[in-house]
Design brief:
The protein is α+β, with helices and mostly antiparallel strands. It has 6 helices and 8 strands; from the N terminus they run E-E-H-E-E-H-H-H-E-E-H-E-E-H. The strands form 2 sheets. A 6-stranded antiparallel beta sheet has the order 1-7-8-4-3-5. Strand 3 and strand 4 form a beta hairpin. It is globular and about 70 Å long.
Length: about 160
């Protein structure tokens, strides 16, 4: 089975708890698993296994002291990674509780309807509205990319014809 694939429509209860599907629970290792929730700038909440999140934190760590002392950009990246992350645990009922501030930033504090999307290394939790907007952005981007690729191919064909 391929981990962290698929798409589920779910509801968050008034306490900010989200019941995970059996497939997602299995991917995370079942109840009691340590996870990390992270607010992403795209407007959703990512949930990663703790081990994966630790790898994200360690990226570039061989020079972290030097970079933290000398680079404002590096310090900002550390702030964004760590301040916008919070440990969560899967309850015996198969639920996680998303922090209230994260729910607000992700636009899921006013609606219980969310989409849980597998993203290979974990899941992302989107408000249904933002997910639909994201899908439109992806579709528009793909159409533009296809159009540009076709234009380049036609230009290459024309150049080859001119050489003949």
């Amino acid at each position: 089975m391929i981990a962290f694939c698929g798409y589920d429509r779910c509801s968050i209860d008034s306490s900010g708890r989200l019941k995970l599907s059996p497939a997602v629970l299995a991917d995370f290792g079942g109840t009691g698993a340590g996870l990390v929730a992270r607010c992403l700038p795209e407007g959703c909440i990512a949930v990663y296994p703790e081990a994966y999140f630790q790898k994200m934190r360690q990226a570039g760590s061989e020079n972290s002291a030097v970079l933290a002392a000398s680079s404002a950009l590096y310090r900002r990246n550390l702030r964004m990674l760590n301040a916008m992350s919070s440990p969560v645990t899967i309850s015996p009922q198969g639920r996680i509780t998303l922090p209230a501030d994260f729910r607000k930033l992700a636009g899921i504090d006013q609606t219980p309807d969310v989409v849980v999307v597998g993203v290979e290394v974990g899941v992302e939790i989107w408000s249904l509205q933002r997910w639909n907007e994201e899908q439109t952005r992806i579709d528009d981007h793909m159409a533009l990319r296809d159009e540009l690729e076709m234009k380049r191919d036609l230009e290459d064909l024309n150049k080859n014809d001119e050489k003949k």
